[in-house]
Amino acid sequence: MEELDIVGQIVGGKTAKILIREKSGEKIELGDLLVVEEDDALVILQVCDLSYGSQVPQSIRELIAGLKLEGYGTELSFLEPQLRNYVIAEAKAIARVEGKDVRIPKSLPSFFSTLRRVTEKDLSFLTKPPNPVYVGKVRSGSKVLDVDVFLDGVDVFTHHIVIPATTGRGKSNLVKVMLWSILDQPNFGVLVLDPHDEYYGRHGKGLKEHPKAKENLLYYSSTPIAGTNTLIVNLRSIMPWHFQGIVSFTDAQWDAIRRYYNEFHEQWIENIVRGTEIEGVAPRTLEVLQRKLDNVLGVYLDDAGNIQCRNRVFSETAGITTTRDIANALERGKKVIVDTSKLSDEAELLIGSIVASEIFYRYQSYKSEGKLDDKPVVSIVIEEAPRVLGSDVLESLGENIYSIIAREGRKFRIGLIAITQLISLIPKTILANMNTKIILGNEIAVERRAIIDSAAQDLSEDDRTIASLDKGEAIISSSFTKFAVPVQVPLFESYIEGSEKKDREEIVFVG
Ligand SMILES: Nc1ncnc2c1ncn2[C@@H]1O[C@H](COP(=O)(O)OP(=O)(O)OP(=O)(O)O)[C@@H](O)[C@H]1O
Ligand SMILES: [Mg+2]
Using 50, 70 and 90 to split pLDDT, how confident is the model at 444? Predict the structure, then answer.
């Protein structure tokens, strides 16, 4: 067997803080994966901190530095510097691997063991699950290993995913990569509410480039491009409960809405906009409701008495099947991107709420009929998730369909992929239900605290590592992975080039 280079040796410490003396010149990095070989197993350690060590007392080191700096002896140096001064790496043991069996280590690796860097072979236990969602390659510090990391979509989508990171660290890129890898898998329907119109690839590369996009990807936009769908939602498909937890109404306004709904059923919005007066609703309340509907939906009555919509997304006449079509597509395992970039926040969340409620309702009845297991898992991607999952929002507006899905969607095979810069705004009770966190870089200490506190593995030593994650560098902490797996997410554009090439190669191979 080939000898692998030794990079250090264990010299002390305790469970989550094993101290390793670095072999000089090895440049151990934060996040590096190191391996101790034991008789029957491998122990994988991850570096979480680095410090200097020295045999020379501090006062002497300072003196020698002073002499050098002040020009008293540029020739001065330590006796055998690599022996007397060194780097101490702090590491924690993250996995004990015995063949295919991987566990959280419950004992310390032997004292004075030597360590080497992890190799691809050490990680051969990371296999492709039945419903693979691609995340990236295993990363050791900033070095990328040629080992693919897949999560099982049925597991992770039904138990929700949170992707927390500071802006620009690669959250949207990651979701694009994941979606690309499942675009041809009919076991998943995914709804993407896309406030920045960045997933489809209207400008540049996007999911539309996928070889199966034609069959499996739908794009709805108020400014559609050739071959895609116009986003028009009929006012009659919007029910009062779709506003629940998303738009704030006073009790009097809710009461008025109820009265309009009881009187006019699905034509309740039209009648409010037209100003139809009904018993029990004060003209002032009616006026406020008209103003709110204008704010949220952009609908108003023009001088000729016709209902108009400023963003052209809501209509009195067209779009009667849109939300049902979207729900149908999700139920057939399609991926649906809704470009909400021209809409207000509330209108975006409302459209999501209509579709999500429809799916939730359908899946609830499938469950009671015993048919749910034949249905694809449905996942909803929501950017800036605290808009619907934030404590303050939930406190002031009450539960909404997204928070309901976060709490109990699992029972009905419905999940969220919640993207956020501010995970600290999401209540712990909801985070506890979201079993997979794909953590990208974060420089805000409060956010890192919230991430670490809600992670599936003990990440208490990883604060500095998370702070130092570069673009696309991530840690997957999930109840479906044995340990928190460091990964490098590929840049979407390079990833799809690679997988397009792979497709071609496979075709050549088969032919
Ligand atoms: N895995 C990656 N590898 C290399 N570069 C990346 C990677 N992910 C993202 N980037 C670069 O960073 C830029 C920002 O990425 P992205 O839009 O995904 O960030 P974000 O976290 O979604 O930001 P925001 O919070 O603003 O939505 C990308 O345009 C790309 O150039
Ligand atoms: Mg983004």
Answer: very high
